[in-house]
Design goal:
The complex is a heterodimer.
Chain A (H helix, E strand, L loop, with lengths): L8 E5 L4 E6 L8 E7 L6 E6 L4 E2 L4 E4 L5 E6 L8 E8 L10 E6 L1
Parallel strand pairs in A: 1-9
Antiparallel strand pairs in A: 2-7, 3-4, 3-8, 5-6, 6-7, 8-9
Chain B lengths: L3 E4 L2 E4 L5 E7 L5 E7 L5 E8 L5 E2 L10 E5 L2 E6 L8 E8 L7 E3 L3 E5 L1
Parallel strand pairs in B: 2-11
Antiparallel strand pairs in B: 1-3, 3-8, 4-5, 4-9, 5-6, 7-8, 9-10, 9-11
């Protein structure tokens, strides 16, 4: 079973920041937090991952709480093409267990 | 990154038959993975296929139903055997990052419908 909980759906206005929360209260010390997204009819796409520290790349930022029990994925300027299901996964190396994810709808 | 292709992209099959899905990656990788995504559901890991060893299956999946081959470092096949309508799903392969990073790269999936 997935070890993370996420809101089922979220809405965001185009151009605004999208903040997607995730709870992973049972995460182990050696497990990472991964974020993937799946745009309709495509395979999942890696976004970002982190262990303890906050991370940023060209797609998004990942904020992990100090106790590592939750995190937030931030898309700084959401576009219509960011409409997708976003999966938060806590896992060791390569063993990904997908939960139900958050369906993000970005609207004009 | 890695570029992954799958064949076929979709198929419609009759109950009781078998279908072999191919996964080709443009780089050599040790670890390849097969997932199933049932209609409206999330992804479920079927098995991990490492070159040179038997595939490792997750709970609820067995080799007789989903035999996997991994003949070299760029190719794998998944067979869905003795199909029933409950096997109608999207089947996806993924690979580890060829450069040793943490991310997995996914193929476009094979959409299977069993009548």
């Amino acid at each position: 079973d997935a070890k993370t909980t996420q809101p089922t759906s979220m809405d965001c206005a185009e151009g605004r920041a999208a903040n997607l929360p995730c709870n992973h209260s049972t995460i182990s010390g050696n497990e990472y937090v991964y974020w993937y997204r799946q745009i309709h009819s495509q395979g999942p796409q890696y976004i970002i991952h982190g262990l303890k520290n906050n991370e940023t790349n060209e797609m998004a930022s990942l904020i992990i709480t100090e106790d590592r029990k939750s995190s937030t994925l931030i898309l700084p300027h959401a576009t219509l093409r960011d409409t997708a299901v976003y999966y938060c996964i806590s896992a060791g190396f390569q063993k990904l267990v997908f939960g139900t994810g958050t369906r993000l709808l970005v609207s004009p | 990154s890695a570029v992954i292709s799958q064949k076929p992209s979709r198929d419609i099959c009759q109950r009781g038959t078998s279908l072999t899905i191919q996964c080709q990656v443009d780089s050599q990788v040790t670890m390849m993975f097969w997932y199933r995504q049932q209609p409206g559901q999330s992804l479920t890991l079927i098995a991990t296929a490492n070159q040179g060893s038997e595939a490792t299956y997750e709970s609820g999946f067995v080799i007789d139903k989903f035999p996997i081959s991994r003949p070299n470092l760029t190719f794998s096949t998944l067979t869905v055997s003795n199909m029933s309508p409950e096997d109608s799903s999207i089947y996806l392969c993924s690979v580890e990052d060829p450069k040793g990073g943490m991310e997995q790269f996914f193929g476009p999936g094979t959409r299977l419908t069993v009548l």
